[in-house]
Amino acid sequence: MYAKLDKLRADLKKAVAKKEEAIARVKQIEERLREEEAAQIVNDVTSYNMSPEQLAQFLKLVNSGQLQSLLNGQAAQGAVAESHSSTASYVADTNRDKDEDMEEIEDDEN
Q1: Rounded Cα–Cα distance for residues 54 and 47 (Å)
Q2: pTM flag (> 0.90)
Q3: CA–CA distance, 76 with 61 (Å, rounded to integer)
Q4: Do 61 and 70 contact (CB within 8 A), yes or no?
Q5: What is the H or E stretch that residue 43 is in?
Q6: What is the pLDDT tens value at each position of the chain, 110 positions in all?
Q7: How far is CA 98 from CA 51, 77, 86, 108, in A?
Q8: DSSP string spanning 57-86?
Q9: Would you call 90 helix, strand, or coil by DSSP?
Q10: What distance in Å separates the CA atoms of residue 61 and residue 95, rounded to the nearest whole number?
Q11: Distances from the Cα of 61 to the Cαs of 29, 101, 102, in angstroms?
Q12: What is the pLDDT of residue 80?
């Protein structure tokens, strides 16, 4: 009399078990992916022989948008110039910093 209901309950139980297995598998794959991504990042950074300080400086340049300016040979002078008392000292500081940054980048590439 309740054979259909019993069969549907059994099917539901199987489907729920499969769903839980699939969710666990997804979590496992996501964790493996995070581990592989982290390992790849470490390998990439290591291949450039960067110190943690150099990496932090590089990432700051990237996040601030100044990296592209440095690569193009331009200095981001606008906002920083306002913080310097004289434009001449700012330009000298910027050029020296740009040269040092470029030397560091070139050294890291070699």
Answers
A1: 13
A2: no
A3: 11
A4: yes
A5: helix 3-47
A6: 799 999 999 999 999 999 999 999 999 999 999 999 999 988 988 898 888 888 898 889 889 888 887 788 765 444 344 333 333 444 455 556 656 666 666 666 55
A7: 19, 11, 18, 15
A8: HHHHHHHHTHHHHHHTT----HHHHHHSS-
A9: helix
A10: 16
A11: 33, 10, 12
A12: 41
Largest CA distance in the chain: 95
Question: Which DSSP helix (H) or strand (E) runs through 61?
Answer: helix 52-64
Place of tokens 């995070």: 34
Query: What one-letter code names the amino acid at 93?
Result: D
Given the structure tokens 């306002």, which residue do they identify?
82
50: which residues sit within 8 A by CB, 6+ positions away?
58, 108
- For the chain, the distance separating the N- and C-terminal CA atoms, rounded to the nearest angstrom, is 80
pLDDT at res. 15: 98
Q: Two tokens at 19?
A: 């769903």
Query: Tokens 């493996």, residue?
Result: 32
